[in-house]
Amino acid sequence: MNTSEYNFKRCKLCKKTVAIPIYALSDSTIYVCQNCDFHFLNQLDQQPEKNKTEELLTEKSRQYIELRIDENNHLRQSRLHFIKKYLNLFQSETLDIGAGLGQFQILLNEHGARSKGIEPSSLRRQYALEKFGIDLHSELINSDYWQTGFLQHFDLITLWDVIEHVDFPQETLKLATKLLKPGGILCLDTPSREVFPYQLSQQVYRLSGGKISLFLPSFYSTVRYGHKQIFTSKQLSDLLERSGLEIISSTCSYTNKMFSNNKIILAGRKTAPT
Ligand SMILES: [Zn+2]
Asked: Pairing mode, if any, of strands 93-97 and 29-33?
């Protein structure tokens, strides 16, 4: 399904056909569900073209990747610290969805995990293999590769800054949960809608009669794999629970610093076989 085929009046979260276009941005519109207040962009990624030749890693793309290679080192350590509170990684089976360059997998492996990762970008996969010797998977979570070969297989599945990018978050979480063992842990983080810049932008948009969208465009993106939905903490916790997970941790920051409350960080444990 692509952008022109989906009826965006159908809420991507509660599936009721009561969403309406509220915030018009320059190249897209944010729909708001009148039932569950979910905010999502009228944008979906196109399906990958079949038989498309794989883009090869060039010196230019290599340099572009290397410019940003260390920028999330500290965040990765915080994420590792977070999951270690709920899971002994030694000899655990782990899957990182949206693995980037495989750097989180390296951390997991250092702690004895048997890790796998999914990364849709062929350039990032090539770079991960060349630089770190990490062989990331191109098969997405809905593929037979995972859904027949790895049911109830993993102790840990992570989605760091991923759920805001996918076309259909509910479906992604259900498919991921199927791959968890009963008792397995799913951890994720994503931007929150309950932050001052978002709330201020909504008010300014209303007061200006739609002329000023302020920071709203920075929360969303129409590029392929861009941000398509921004959750509230409750919306995402409820979604995890509907996917068969019991919330074992919900927080908004990896640190205790003031003014750093800017994310939704959740851990859920699979309660029953699905
Ligand atoms: Zn809804």
From this structure: unpaired
